[in-house]
Amino acid sequence: MSFRATVLTLYPEMFPGHLGQSLAGRALERGDASIEAVNIRDYATDRHRSVDDTPAGGGAGMVLRPDILAAAIDAVSPGDDTRPRLLMSPRGLPLTQARVRALASGPGAVIVCGRFEGVDQRVIEARDLEEISIGDYVLSGGEPAALILLDAVIRVLPGVMGNAASGAHESFETGLLEHPHYTRPQEFEGRAIPPVLTSGNHQAVEAWRQAQSLELTRQRRPDLLDRASDQIAK
Ligand code: SAH
Predict the structure, then answer these.
(1) Whose CA is nearest to atom 26 of ligand 1?
(2) Residue 136 Cα, ligand 1 centroid: separation in angstroms?
(3) pLDDT tens-digit map of 3-60
(4) Buried-most residue among 70, 73, 164, 197 (CB within 10 A)?
(5) Which of 89, 93, 124, 131 for a ligand 1 pocket mutation test, highest count of atoms within 8 Å of Cβ?
(6) The CATH number of the domain covering residues in 169-233
(7) Residue 126 CB neighbours (<10 A)
């Protein structure tokens, strides 16, 4: 089964973007995943092909019209489509590795990219769009957010990462940040590789990595530790 993404956007030429390269590029070539970008403007109905209008209640900017967006969603995702419908949005729940894994184990996703001030609330409700944020900052459009989400999903699809084991210890997979990495040369500008890593003692290496991981998380992201202990408590 391959992961099928349909992206609704005003800028279809932004796709597949960087996902055409490297790891994701090869996955797309093999057909492990596909990304179809559809122009929302193709579903405009007036002469000027307009997709947005001024905000009800006044204020700056423009809002994507619900009727045009709904027509685009219905055209790419008919009633029997089981793929989740996502809206990239700074008001959404923050994207997590757990959500990425869940998406990757499903049939794909329909992803709506907002522009301007955002989209009319009624289409979010009427088409049951799940709002997903990639972080607490505001982008000018949903396209880079969709590319980031798809990057994270494609790299965890079965067979995409060369060494399957390399995913297991990574940041967030264990609920913690990952330990630091080292490679040759043995000494770099007077800094040596921590001796335990070259000791050949696998148990000691594992213990060192776990301790580093925990300490780094405690220093930088104590919120992750709170989340992990919540999960243990449940
Ligand atoms: N006025 C809105 C921001 C609109 S930004 C607000 O204050 O909430 C325009 C579009 O960029 C949004 O519709 C969304 O699709 C995208 N976007 C901006 N920031 C984002 C983020 N952090 N995560 C995901 N999408 C984002």
Answers:
(1) 89
(2) 10
(3) 999 999 999 999 999 999 999 999 999 999 999 999 999 999 999 999 999 999 999 9
(4) 73
(5) 89
(6) 1.10.1270.20
(7) 13
